[in-house]
Amino acid sequence: MLVQNGKIIRIADEIKDEKATVISSAKLHASIGWMDIGTVSGEPGYEQRETFESLSKTAAAGGYTAIAVFPNTMPVSDSKSSIQYVSNTTKSLLVDFLPIASVSKGCKGVEITEMIDMKENGAIAFSDGVHSIESSGLMLRALQYSKVVDGIVIHQASDPGIANGNDIHEGTVSTSLGLKASPVLSEVLAVERDLRLAEYAEGRLLVHNISSAESVEKLKAFKSKNVYCSVPYLNLCKTDQSIASFDVNYKTCPPLRSEGDREALVNGIRKNVIDIISSNHVPLEEELKKKEFVYADAGATGLQTCFSALCSFAKDISIKKMVKCLALNPRHIFGLGIPAIEEGAEANLCLFDPEAEWELNETNNFSLSRNSPFWNQKLNGKVIAVIKARQNHINNY
Fold first, then answer.
1. Residue 287 maps to which CATH number?
2. How confident is the model over 267-285, as a mean pLDDT?
3. What total of structural domains would you count in the chain?
4. pTM confidence score
5. What is the pLDDT of residue 397?
């Protein structure tokens, strides 16, 4: 494949061009660039965690050419000016930033935002991001209003009153460690509520970042053309056994659950119950993670390690299925064009080797944060490069 000036010029069994930069690897694959849903940015307000520039570099290093960013910044993306700020500030970056507008003002779950106005100014979806929407009335109105503009509501289902304020799975591990924990029930009740509200409002809903076998069963029974589902990559790769050593970087929201839950999530991917694999990228400064386990903030970076962890720990998921969940389904669900890989098309490519080995460390971490559970660990599966328009990012580890 020969790419010049941002366009795919030629695809052939053999191409000779002495002036070209050759990108190669033993098991090199090509797909369209990946798209992440629900990426958490630091900028504006928390630039010590992540700036737009560092987030773009981190995403590109992980194979992404587009990211839909949550509104959980300071100020919150809850007005047309804040949506325009994200779009205008990131225009020159390699990765496309697609703003997700908040459902409620300040993401406080009380007063609904001007959703139609924000959709007209570039918001691709609506969500309170990492905050659950407790009010059923607010959730219903959001689904109804989003329907008017053919929008979609993204909600990470959890009932805070049952979750006990913790991002630790209630099970044998939490019991043995003596930790207050969050039962699966806190997620399942919220999932069931959201599904019923979406059906009543005839609105489009993405049940975001599910973590349990029961949620998979609820979605399997309810699955419709207006309801979609995502899962964090880490929940496909690891279980609550990972927190037995009190590693705070495995403390995430939603929590890592049992092996039975992990297997059900993998099967949900394989059987098309789950549509999207998310990086669940939540950068946090060291001061918020270097605490006793119960007091540490929940969240881990994921953009750079998502594909590699899937290749290393979720081997039952085929490469073809990974690409579908990382690149094709997100664009299809959000009504975005699918880039073509053909002669004459603009390049929007991810080049990767599912067997190449690498590790995330100080020399190749592009995020401003270091809260990764895979720090200094050997992983199989490496993104070699992304090529998009007139820019590219090549990983030289």
1. 3.20.20.140
2. 97
3. 1
4. 0.96
5. 39
**Single-letter residue type at 269:** I
Tell me, yes or no, whether 243 lies in a domain.
yes
**Please, is 129 exposed, middle or buried when counting C-beta atoms within 10 Å of its C-beta (0-12, 13-18, 19+)?**
buried
* Cβ pair 278, 231 in contact under 8 A: yes
What is the C-alpha to C-alpha distance for residues 383 and 57, in angstroms, rounded to an integer?
13
Number of H helices, E strands in the chain: 14, 14
Q: What distance separates the 2 farthest-apart alpha carbons in the chain?
A: 64
DSSP bridge pairs for 207: 155, 229
The pLDDT tens digits for 118-168 are: 999 999 999 999 999 999 999 999 999 999 999 999 999 999 889 877 789
- 183 preceded by a cis bond (ω within 30 of 0): no
- Nearest alpha-carbon partner for 210 in 224, 227, 230, 238: 230
Instruction: Tell me which residue range forms the domain holding 38.
Output: 32-337
Per-residue tokens: 161: 């009153």
Pairwise CA distance, residues 170 & 166, whole Å? 10
- Is residue 125 domain-resident? yes
Helix ranges (DSSP H) in the chain: 52-61, 80-89, 115-120, 136-148, 160-163, 172-177, 185-201, 213-222, 233-237, 259-270, 286-289, 306-313, 319-323, 329-333
What is the tens place of the pLDDT at every residue in 74-132? 999 999 999 999 999 999 999 999 999 999 999 999 999 999 999 999 999 999 999 99
CA distance 3 to 7: 5
Q: Residue 113 corresponds to which amino acid? A: T
User: Does a structural domain hold residue 344?
Assistant: no
DSSP 143-212: HHHHHHTT--EEE----HHHHTT--SB-SHHHHHHT---B-THHHHHHHHHHHHHHHHHT--EEE-S---
The answer to whether position 267 is within a domain reads yes
